[in-house]
Amino acid sequence: xxxxxxxxxxxxxxxxxxxxxxxxxxxxxxxxxxxxxxxxxxxxxxxxxxxxxxxxxxxxxxxxxxxxxxxxxxxxxxxxxxxxxxxxxxxxxxxxxxxxxxxxxxxxxxxxxxxxxxxxxxxxxxxxxxxxxxxxxxxxxxxxxxxxxxxxxxxxxxxxxxxxxxxxxxxxxxxxxxxxxxxxxxxxxxxxxxxxxxxxxxxxxxxxxxxxxxxxxxxxxxxxxxxxxxxxxxxxxxxx
Amino acid sequence: xxxxxxxxxxxxxxxxxxxxxxxxxxxxxxxxxxxxxxxxxxxxxxxxxxxxxxxxxxxxxxxxxxxxxxxxxxxxxxxxxxxxxxxxxxxxxxxxxxxxxxx
Lengths: 240, 103
What we know:
The complex is a heterodimer of chains A (240) and B (103). In chain A, helix 2 runs antiparallel to helix 3 (57-77) and helix 3 (57-77) runs antiparallel to helix 4. Chain A has three domains: 1-112, NADH-ubiquinone/plastoquinone oxidoreductase chain 6, subunit NuoJ (Four Helix Bundle (Hemerythrin (Met), subunit A)); 114-149; 187-240, no CATH class. Helix content of chain A is 70%, strand content 0%. Chain A has eight helices and no strands. The relative contact order of chain A is 0.04. The termini of chain A are far apart. The radius of gyration of chain A is 36 Å and the shape is elongated. By secondary structure, chain B is mainly alpha-helical. Chain B has a domain at 28-89. Chain B contains four helices and no strands. In chain B, helix 1 (5-26) runs antiparallel to helix 2 (30-55) and helix 2 packs antiparallel against helix 3 (58-90). Chain B is elongated, with a radius of gyration of 17 Å. In chain B, 55% of the residues are buried.
C-alpha cells in the first residue's frame, strides 16, 4: 500500500533502486527528513501542553494559534497543501482573532487549578480512550474502510452539493453567533413593547398635569396662609 | 531501529488526542473548554489526512478534513457566543458555578 503514497512516504521504495553510493546519501537525506518531522512534532506537542497548562486564557489562545501553525506545517510536509493553507488561515488566523475578541469581551479570568473531575480519574479515562483508539485502529483495518477506487472518491466529491448546502447553513449559524457576541446586553422588558410605551406616555401625561396644576394649588395655599409668598411659584395666580 | 514517518505521525495524533481529551475533562472555564475542543478536532483533522495518505486517496482525505475544519470553526464561534452571553447574564464562566444554577 505504501507504494501508492506520494510525498514523504514514497522514499522507502525508491531507495531499493539506488546504488550503494547513492544509497548512503539517500539514507542521510531520509534521516534529516525524519529529524525535521520529529522537530515539528515536538514543537507541536509542547505547544499543545502549553495550551493546557497556561493559566491565562489569552496565553492559552495564543498557544493554540501556535498549535495550528505547527499542524499546518506538518500537513504541508505530508503533501496535504490545501488543508495546510486552510488550517493556517482559519485555525491560526480567524479562530485566534475570535478567541482574543471574546476574551476581551468576557474578561480574562484566571483559570482555576482544581477541576470538576479528579485528575486521576481524568488521566485513567484518557489512557483508556487512547488505548481504545490504538486497538481499534490496528484491529479494524480502518484504512480499507475508505473508498479505494477513484470512482467512489469522484462520486463523493460530485455529491458534495448537499455537503456545501450544510456548510452554508452552518456559516449562517456562525454569523448569527457572531452577531450574538457583538450584541449589547439589555435588561429584559417587564411587559410587551406596546404596553411599555403606553405606561411611559401615561407617566409623562401625569407629570405634565401635576406641573400645570401646581401654580393654582400654590395660590390656594397662599390665600389660606399655608405658605409664604416666597415659597409659592412665581406663576401662581391671585385668587379672589 | 528505523522509525517510519507514518508511525511518528500516528503517535502525534494519539498525543494530541490525549492532550485535548484530558483538557476537556479537567477544564472548568467555558472558553478553555472550547480551546481544548479545538485541539481534539485538530487531532481528528490530522488523522483524516493520514488516513487519506495511507489509502492513496489524499484528495478524499483533504475534502473531509476541510469540511471538518469549517464545521469546527462554526462550532467554536457559536460556543464562544454562548460563553459571552452566559458571562453577561450570570457573571461567571466557571462550569461548577453554572451547574449549581436551578431553572
